[in-house]
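Here is the promised in-class demo. Please do not try to memorize the tokens; focus on the logic of going from shape to residues.
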């Protein structure tokens, strides 16, 4: 995707370049919990990001960035998009509204549970997809095995007939014909 994954965002890598003081694009983090918050921020529901999916710098604050010695800015590890996003199901709101959590610790724990739950649901879907793929590949293997068996039997017939011919020729020679 050559642009920002946030559903309401129109930032495209082609229209604004980083060097022109425009927008920069950040790949989705590997940490499953943080990744989940990023996915949630896109507002795309059950959408799953690809390796090349990105979220643009419009959704991060200056505090999410650090500066290297070279002067280049980079997104801090663990940063999550909070700006200019539409959440279908916000982690914060969900945990606050559905909870009778009285203490910040309880609230935090509820939020963690909610995040993990969403991760599990998404991973289950991924598992199903992989299983279906697996079944398709197995079918392919069966077909291939059939072809191989077929070829092997054809080959052995050819080999057999070749030997028979050879033998009969030898016999003819030995009989002096
Ligand atoms: Zn964006």
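The designed amino acids, position by position:
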């Amino acid at each position: 995707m050559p642009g920002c994954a946030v559903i309401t965002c129109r930032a495209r890598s082609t229209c604004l370049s980083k060097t022109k003081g425009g927008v920069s694009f950040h790949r989705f983090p590997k940490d499953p919990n943080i990744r989940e918050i990023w996915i949630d921020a896109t507002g795309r529901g059950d959408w799953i990001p690809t390796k090349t999916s990105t979220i643009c710098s419009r959704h991060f604050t200056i505090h999410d960035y650090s500066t290297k010695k070279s002067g280049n800015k980079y997104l801090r590890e663990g940063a999550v998009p909070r700006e200019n996003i539409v959440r279908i199901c916000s982690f914060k709101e969900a945990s606050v509204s559905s909870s009778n959590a009285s203490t910040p610790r309880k609230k935090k724990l509820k939020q963690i549970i909610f995040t993990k739950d969403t991760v599990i649901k998404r991973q289950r879907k991924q598992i199903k997809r992989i299983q279906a793929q697996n079944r398709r590949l197995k079918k392919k293997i069966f077909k291939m095995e059939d072809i191989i068996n077929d070829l092997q039997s054809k080959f052995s017939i050819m080999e057999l007939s070749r030997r028979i011919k050879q033998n009969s020729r030898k016999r003819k020679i030995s009989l002096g014909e």
